[in-house]
Design a protein that fits this description.
Ser/Thr_kinase_AS, globular, Prot_kinase_dom, ATP-binding, about 475 residues, Phosphorylase Kinase, domain 1, phosphoprotein, kinase, six-stranded antiparallel β-sheet, 2 domains, Transferase(Phosphotransferase), domain 1, three-stranded mixed β-sheet
C-alpha cells in the first residue's frame, strides 16, 4: 500500500511539473517590486454575486408553483445581459497566485487539461479529430461576470497545420463564456445550460450572436461566441433617452427577423429586452442570451413562469401556457420602450406590476405616429390568439405591417440597410463599451472544484462547421 502511495505521489508530481513547464511561458509577472504570497484570493462567493453587466439576476418568484422547482427563475431586476448577471466585486489582488493555484488544482484533478473532441462524443456526427480546449485561447480581458462564471475577451491561438491541411479561417477575437459545473448542478440548471448550447448550434442568422465552439473540462463548461463590441442596446437607449421612429424601425425589424428565424426552428426566446440585445460596430443589433429559451413546436405550449417581468406576456403570468406568441408581446414592449424611453407597465411592487400587465391599458404619447400606434396595439393584445404575429405565418403579418413599409426585408437580412447610428468602436478587440469594473479585472480563469456527481454534460463539445468559421 505504501509503495502504491509513493507511485501516485510521484505521478502527481510529474504531472504538475509537466503542466507548469507547458504553461510558464504564458505567465506574465506584474511590474511590482514584490509579490506577497500571503495576499488572499478573492472570496469564492464574490464570483457568484451578480447585478450589473451582461445579464439578468435570478430570483425565486413567490408566484412560481411548487411543482416547477426546475423551471427558469423569474427576473425581477433589470440588468445587462450576455451571459448572466454581473456585480461590482473586488477583483483578485494577486493574479500570479491565482495562476499557481490553478496549476495545483489541475494536478489534483479539479481541472482537466484540454479534451480531445473524439473522447467526449460517441456518435459519428460528434467524432472530430481536432483537439480544442481552454489552452487554445489567449485571455485578453474580462468583459462580464455571470451566474455561473465569467466572460472573457479571448484570441484564438494559431495552430500549426500538418502538410496539406488548410489553414482554419476565423475571426481574431471571441467572447468566452465560462460556467462552473458545480454551481450549475447545485442550482438545478443543467437542462437549461444544455438547452442553451443546443439552441445556439441550430441557429445561424445575421442578427443572432453565433456560437463558434463549445467544450468542457472536468469542472467547467465553455462557450466561444462572436465578440460583439458595440455594447448593449439598453446602454445606447439609456444614453439617448428615446430613439426616433426611423432608428427604432431598423432595430425592431432586425429583431423581428431574428425572432422569426428562431420560431421557424421551433425556438422561443422568452427573455427579449434591450439588455439581451447587443450592437455590433456597424450599428446592427444582435440577439443574445438564450438561457431561458425553449424548443416548442407549433402546437406545443410551455407552462414555465420565466422571463423578465416588465416584458412578460400576460399568458405567462397567468400560467395558462405559452408559445411563440409570447415573444411578439415582448417585442411590443421593447418597441414601446424605444419610442417612449420606458416600459408601458412599471411598478416597484412585482405583484402590482403583474396585475398591471394583465389588466392595465397601454397609453401612448401623442408623439408616436398612427402607424406605430397600430403596430403596438397589435403586438400588445393581451389575448395571444388575437395578437399580431399569432398563427403559422404570423411573422409575415408583422413584416407586412404599414409601419415597416420603408423596410426592404431582403436587403435588411443581407445587412445592406445601414443604420444611421454606429457605436464608437476602435477595433475588434475594443472594450470601451463595457464597464470598467470588469475590464480592469485581472484576466483569470480561476480554478473550480470538480462535481462529484455523474456526467451531466455528455456531448457538450461542439465545433462550428467551416462555413460558419469563415463568415464575417
Amino acid at each position: 500500500m505504501n509503495e502504491n502511495n509513493r507511485m501516485v505521489s510521484t505521478s502527481q508530481k510529474k504531472s504538475l511539473h509537466s503542466l507548469m513547464a507547458a504553461n510558464l511561458s504564458k505567465l506574465t509577472i506584474p511590474c511590482s517590486s514584490s509579490s506577497s504570497s500571503s495576499t488572499p484570493l478573492s472570496n469564492e462567493h464574490d464570483e457568484f454575486d451578480f447585478s450589473h453587466v451582461f445579464g439578468h439576476h435570478h430570483e425565486e418568484s413567490s408566484t412560481t408553483p411548487a411543482s416547477s422547482a426546475m423551471s427558469p427563475h423569474v427576473i425581477h431586476s433589470r440588468s445587462h445581459s450576455f451571459v448572466g448577471p454581473s456585480p461590482r466585486v473586488a477583483p483578485p489582488s494577486n493574479p500570479v497566485l491565482s495562476f499557481v493555484n490553478e496549476l495545483s488544482s489541475q494536478s489534483e484533478g479539479e481541472e482537466s487539461e484540454q479534451l480531445p473532441l473524439n473522447e467526449i462524443h460517441n456518435t459519428e456526427e460528434e467524432k472530430v479529430s481536432t483537439r480544442i480546449g481552454p489552452t487554445d485561447f489567449e485571455i485578453l480581458r474580462v468583459v462580464g461576470q455571470g451566474s455561473f462564471g465569467k466572460v472573457f475577451l479571448v484570441r484564438k491561438k494559431k495552430q500549426q497545420k500538418k502538410e496539406g491541411e488548410e489553414e482554419e479561417c476565423c475571426d481574431d477575437v471571441f467572447a468566452m463564456k465560462v460556467m462552473r459545473k458545480e454551481t450549475i448542478i447545485k442550482k438545478n440548471h443543467v437542462d437549461y445550460m444544455k438547452a442553451e448550447r443546443d439552441i445556439l448550434t441550430k441557429v445561424v442568422h445575421p442578427f443572432i450572436v453565433q456560437l463558434r465552439y463549445s467544450f468542457q473540462t472536468k469542472s467547467k463548461l465553455y462557450l466561444i461566441l462572436d465578440f460583439i463590441n458595440g455594447g448593449h442596446l439598453f446602454f445606447h437607449l439609456y444614453r439617448q433617452g428615446i430613439f426616433s421612429e426611423d432608428q427604432a424601425r431598423i432595430y425592431t425589424a432586425e429583431i423581428v427577423s431574428a425572432v422569426s428565424h428562431l420560431h421557424k426552428n421551433g425556438i422561443v426566446h422568452r427573455d427579449l429586452k434591450p439588455e439581451n440585445i447587443l450592437m455590433d460596430s456597424d450599428g446592427h443589433v444582435m440577439l443574445t442570451d438564450f438561457g431561458l429559451s425553449k424548443e416548442i413546436d407549433e402546437s406545443g405550449r410551455s407552462n414555465s413562469l420565466c422571463g423578465t417581468v416588465e416584458y412578460m406576456a400576460p399568458e405567462i403570468i397567468l400560467g395558462k401556457g405559452h408559445n411563440k406568441d409570447a415573444d411578439w408581446w415582448s417585442i411590443g414592449i421593447l418597441l414601446y420602450e424605444m419610442l417612449t424611453g420606458k416600459a408601458p407597465f412599471t411598478h416597484t411592487n412585482k405583484k402590482k406590476l403583474q396585475e398591471k400587465i394583465i389588466k392595465g391599458k397601454v397609453k401612448l404619447p401623442p408623439t408616436v405616429s398612427t402607424e406605430a400606434h397600430s403596430l403596438l396595439k397589435g403586438l400588445l393584445q393581451k389575448d395571444p390568439s388575437t395578437r399580431l404575429g399569432s398563427g403559422p405565418n404570423g411573422d409575415e403579418q408583422i413584416k407586412s405591417h404599414k409601419w415597416f413599409r420603408p423596410i426592404n426585408w431582403k436587403k435588411l437580412e443581407a445587412r445592406e440597410l445601414e443604420p444611421k447610428f454606429k457605436p464608437d468602436v476602435s477595433g475588434k478587440d475594443c472594450t470601451a463599451n463595457f464597464d470598467q469594473c470588469w475590464t480592469a479585472m485581472p484576466p483569470d480563469d480561476s480554478p473550480a472544484s470538480t462535481p462529484t456527481a455523474g456526467d451531466h454534460f455528455h456531448g457538450y463539445t461542439y465545433v462550428a462547421p467551416n462555413p460558419w468559421l469563415s463568415s464575417k
